[in-house]
Predict the 3D structure of the following.
Amino acid sequence: MKDKILQEFGRVFGNAEGAQAYFAPGRVNLIGEHTDYNGGHVFPCALTIGTYAVARKREDRKLRFYSMNFNHLGITESSLDDLTPRREAGWTNYPKGVIWALGEKGYSIPQGIDLLLYGNIPNGSGLSSSASVEIVTGYILNNMFELGISNQDLALIGQFSENNFNGVNCGIMDQFAIAMGKKDHAIFLDTADLSFIYAPIKLEGAKIVISCSNKKRGLGDSKYNERRQECETALKEIQQGMGIDTLGDLNEEMFERVKTAIKDETRQKRAKHAVYENQRTIKAVQALKDNNIALFGKLMNESHISLRDDYEVTGIELDTLVEEAWKVEGVIGSRMTGAGFGGCTVSIVKDEAVERFKEQVGAAYQAKIGYAADFYVVQVGAGPCKL
């Protein structure tokens, strides 16, 4: 892959002299959805698919961007003196946002760059292609200009750029999972204080299968910000009678005692999901430690039901993928992953059932939805690197 992208860089930008190649993974969240902005736990892992990049410093302040995934757009030009988000700038708002965020945090980027990207994450799938682009950009600039930023801080800078430059009120999970990824491990992260442990993913005799619904969605225009607002309002209502900082501070029993403080039934359901999902995530990581993969799968299934009924972020495409997965013998657990409203599901499937899973779920999905889903058997990968 390194040779391929360097060759393409040379073709697009005239030569590849002085150019360097990099990679940042995508991520999948195994359990703990919509908990990351509610002060709860998440359990994502980095993948071996992600964003490849080639970059080179320029002598001027120009920024030139090219994506092999959108090659019909050609080179998009900008400048270090014009770091403002523009709709017509499309995907380049993500790398530009990171350059802007570094400036906001007091880091100097004195020269422009030529940047080529190639992603093998399905676009709009919910496997964090945008966060992967942010982290690879931050990693490149950190490396090229010797900024001395830790990977954990690169995650925070990526989140800051997505929140404040691109207007998506995302939590920290995506950028953190990508920046801090470790091969064959998932990250058990407490989003309230960013404390984390690496938990080995030992799936003897089973694989992680991503099912991509191929329903395109944009986070910014989805109901994501609305769900976040509902949870923040519910938290304020609970705080009037109880000293907590986040919904993640509550367990199930505590929530059941105080839920009547939430004046609206819909907000009550949203808060219930945030609390119960956080507790499910804690139990799921323990189940993995105890080598109880069946319990882990059961908790994944319960997570999907909560996302469908209490949080209402699934939709017919994701529900079809999950409900058909549950019918396949050899499926240990299946749930939507990511923000919802399209994107992907994650399933743990016994080795001998993987092909049957793809055929059976694929056929049922095509029949019901009218177009095909795509399936990816994925491995747990490491964080960003120079190739």
